[in-house]
Amino acid sequence: LMYAEAAVQGYGGANGKSPKFSKTAVEAVNVVRARAGVGDVHSSLTSSISAFMKELIRERAVELSFEGHRFNDLRRWRLLNVAPYNVKTRQFFDRAEPLDPSVDPKENKVVGWREEPIITRNLIERHYWLPINTADVSIYEGFGQNPGW
To answer: For residue 7, what pLDDT is reported?
Structure first.
């Protein structure tokens, strides 16, 4: 997925590829999706860099969930303080009566689906940077602290 991001940004789109690697950005994503048993990226998402990046952002969230990469990904993409990425939500739904335990649970209908915000992260421009240790900044007069810190 990192290669796909680099290829789309560095070589001009979803069909961009490094001269040192045989796969395009979209082909690299499709390898990951195939491993998970998911179909290829839809062609409508490969028509522009912005459409493909939206899909790549979603794909990284799904593929790397619970691995601790999301915060740094959002920093890199400068999306920390952009909705919906700064809003944490929870989702609720009910099953329609009558519930039939003898069938696949997917066959029981869902009703009353709702989503509620839990927290909105109030992140600002300085959160795109990490603070530099004060002792390190003090070593040289021309070496300043990162913005906002």
So the answer is: 96
Smallest CA-to-CA distance from 69 within 8, 5, 145 is with 5
Q: Which helix (H) or strand (E) holds 91?
A: strand 87-95
pTM greater than 0.85 (yes/no):
no
Is residue 6 helix, strand or coil?
helix
pLDDT of residue 133: 95
The structure tokens 């003090």 sit at 138
Which domains can be identified in the chain, with CATH numbers? 1-77 (1.25.40.900), 87-120 (no CATH), 122-149 (no CATH)
Task: Give pLDDT, residue 113.
Answer: 92
Instruction: Tell me if 7 sits within 8 A of 25, measured CB to CB.
Output: yes
Amino acid at position 101, single letter: P
